[in-house]
From TrEMBL:
Protein name: LacI family DNA-binding transcriptional regulator
Cross-referenced Pfam families: LacI (PF00356), Peripla_BP_3 (PF13377)
Keyword Aminoacyl-tRNA synthetase assigned: no
Source lineage: Bacteria, Pseudomonadati, Pseudomonadota, Alphaproteobacteria, Hyphomicrobiales
Organism for this UniProt entry: Aliirhizobium smilacinae
Domain HTH lacI-type: 4-58
Length: 331
């Protein structure tokens, strides 16, 4: 590819190379007549400033890394979309790195971002090792972690425990007594926190919640967990699902394989409020996480860290709101 250069613009405009540079540098001094000639030549040639070169000279780019595992699935897809939009509005260039959850993969992603002088990294997946944070600190790169408690990074957390307690209390207030929770064996910290908080809240009210796990926190995981719950033991009359994808799988099994009615026989509450939760075939009562709010908080933490590098690590909590639909009506 042959990109139009600043030198070509200077030749067409009949000005110096430095005049072209000053024209496209915010706050730089340049005569109005010179600016007009440069802009006219740039428009004619289709010239754009080489931001990559500027970033190299400044030892920092406008790149912001977004590290995620399976960013196309469930709530994470909507959060990734909201985060990239928020970064673009900020004037940043989001770079999505679809990686696994092993230490080796996370460190490889980080080294790639630091090598390209990314100004910050936002982590949506995995549990980074201590060396991850040490390397970022040595290079002055802000880190924001979403959905997990990491004392060495700024973080945005959902109110998992608050929502889970509310789910248990709301079921009990509605007269539901045979409680259960569906989560997964490959649980993220957020999924595990929701499961544990629900069980503890139920026990505090005098009820034992059955626990069923799928392999992963997805639709198939909900199918597997629901089959286990309804194939043996006392059938639950209320289920809290640690995310909406698990709930969708459970709902299809409850209706189609066991012939039960929702919410008459079994009430369900999910977590995330992905768009499919409002579909007529599901109508899932669920806790809404707003991706735009979480993304805005993450961007705010990046800005705060760049302005105040030595401040204590910050925590932003976003409390989900319960949205009632037909899978569990308001008591």
């Amino acid at each position: 590819m042959r990109f139009v250069s600043a030198e070509q613009v200077a030749q067409l405009a009949g000005v110096s190379r430095s005049a072209v540079s000053r024209t496209f540098t915010e706050g730089a001094s340049v005569a109005p007549a010179t600016r007009e000639k440069v802009l006219k030549a740039a428009e004619e040639l289709g010239y754009h400033v080489n931001d990559l070169a500027r970033g190299v000279l400044a030892n920092q780019s406008r790149l912001v890394g977004v590290v995620a595992t399976k960013p196309e699935i469930g709530f994470r897809a909507h959060l990734t979309a909201a985060l990239t939009k928020a970064l673009i509005r900020r004037g940043s260039i989001p770079v999505l790195i679809n990686t696994g959850e092993t230490e080796e993969e996370l460190l490889a992603a980080q080294k790639m971002l630091i090598g390209h002088r990314a100004e910050a990294t936002v982590i949506l997946s995995g549990s980074p090792p201590a060396s991850f944070f040490e390397l970022a600190q040595r290079n002055g790169q802000p880190l924001v972690v979403i959905g997990r408690s990491e004392p060495d990074a700024d973080r945005v957390l959902a109110g998992n425990a608050e929502a889970s307690r509310e789910a248990a209390d709301t079921f009990i207030a509605a007269g539901r007594r045979r409680l259960a929770v569906i989560a997964s064996r490959s649980a993220t910290p957020s999924i595990a926190e929701r499961e544990n908080a629900f069980v503890i809240a139920a026990r505090a009210s005098g009820f034992e919640a059955r626990i069923a796990h799928g392999r992963d926190s997805d639709y198939d995981g909900g199918v597997i967990a629901a089959r286990a719950l309804f194939s043996e033991g006392e059938r639950p009359d209320a289920i809290f699902c640690a995310n909406d994808l698990l709930a969708f799988g459970a709902m299809d099994v409850i209706r189609q394989e066991f012939g039960l009615s929702i919410p008459q026989d079994v009430a369900l509450i999910g977590f995330d409020d992905v768009p499919e939760a409002a579909w007529l075939s599901y109508g899932l009562t669920t806790f809404r996480q707003d991706p735009a709010t979480i993304a805005a908080r993450a961007v705010m933490l990046i800005d705060r860290r760049q302005q105040n590098p030595d401040e204590p690590r910050a925590l932003e909590r976003v409390i989900p709101q319960l949205v009632f639909r037909k899978s569990f009506l308001h008591p």
